[in-house]
């Protein structure tokens, strides 16, 4: 009964349900009326691992690259047609396939909306966070873009994991830490003053002492923006504690490099206004 099938497809309340289908029911679950069905079937068949081994080893990567476009064309109501394919690609043995998905997961989240993102994309996102650095950099570069789409309670869960971005497979991968500092600047707008002080402040101080100057320079801007954010908050105790820590850790540091760090932080946003004003 095609009418009942289409009713199921366009019913938003059924999009996130998980049930075991028979082969016939599974075929019907991938029926849509946006593009020719044969075209969609051909695309879905390209993700078959056996086909990737015998036809083209890069075919899965190309499918992963095109998936956000396919999802946008089909629309949010037809996500169930692509969900299994997306999960198959997200667990592909080739890291290049997973990396491609990691770089576009924030775009897919915009297409799907908050409910489908929380149910179907967050588990994949969490898996990417524990993947190789080549895959993790994809979610890190768009960390703010993805987290801002989540509800506040779900977003706060990632505060505990931000510290893990300081650890990389290769310690020489300084660009990874530089990107983390850039993203933390954007994340300041998503969290409360207490969250910034408790979770983002320790990471920022660690980045300020990085061995690579490019990472340190971005971190100076991060600390400066952090002071500004806490200064504008209704609770003033956090900014006072942060400034005291800056003075104790850097301004009164026995090493000249620490005192220089304090000067550079002040230089970024003229923080002497906050300290002595």
TrEMBL record:
Gene Ontology annotations for the cellular component aspect, listed alphabetically: cytoplasm
Keyword field contains Repeat: yes
Matches recorded under SUPFAM superfamilies: ARM repeat (SSF48371)
Chain residue ranges for the region called Disordered: 11-30
Record field: transmembrane: none
Protein name: PP4R1 phosphatase
A single GO molecular function term of this UniProt record: protein phosphatase regulator activity
Keywords of this entry: Repeat
Gene that this sequence comes from: Ppp4r1_3
Keyword set includes Flavoprotein: no
Annotated organism of origin: Podargus strigoides (Tawny frogmouth)
């Amino acid at each position: 009964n095609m009418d009942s099938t289409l009713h199921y497809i366009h019913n938003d309340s059924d999009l996130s349900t998980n049930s075991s289908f028979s082969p016939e029911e599974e075929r019907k679950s991938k029926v849509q009326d946006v593009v020719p069905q044969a075209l969609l079937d051909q695309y879905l068949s390209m993700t078959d691992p056996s086909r990737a081994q015998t036809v083209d080893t890069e075919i899965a990567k190309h499918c992963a690259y095109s998936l956000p476009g396919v999802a946008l064309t089909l629309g949010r109501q037809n996500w169930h047609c692509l969900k299994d394919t997306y999960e198959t690609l997200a667990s592909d043995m080739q890291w290049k396939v997973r990396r491609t998905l990691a770089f576009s997961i924030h775009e897919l989240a915009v297409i799907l909306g908050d409910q489908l993102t929380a149910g179907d994309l967050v588990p994949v996102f969490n898996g990417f966070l524990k993947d190789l650095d080549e895959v993790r950099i994809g979610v890190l570069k768009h960390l703010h873009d993805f987290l801002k789409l989540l509800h506040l309670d779900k977003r706060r869960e990632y505060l505990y994991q931000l510290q893990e971005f300081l650890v990389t497979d290769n310690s020489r991968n300084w660009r990874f830490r530089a990107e983390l500092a850039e993203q933390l600047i954007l994340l300041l707008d998503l969290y409360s003053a207490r969250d910034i002080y408790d979770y983002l402040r320790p990471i920022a101080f660690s980045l300020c002492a990085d061995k690579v100057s490019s990472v340190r320079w971005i971190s100076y801007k991060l600390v400066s923006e952090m002071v500004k954010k806490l200064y504008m908050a209704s609770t003033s105790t956090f900014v006072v504690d942060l400034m005291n820590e800056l003075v104790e850790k850097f301004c009164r540091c026995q090493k000249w490099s620490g005192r220089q760090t304090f000067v550079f932080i002040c230089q970024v946003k003229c923080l002497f206004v906050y300290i002595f004003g």
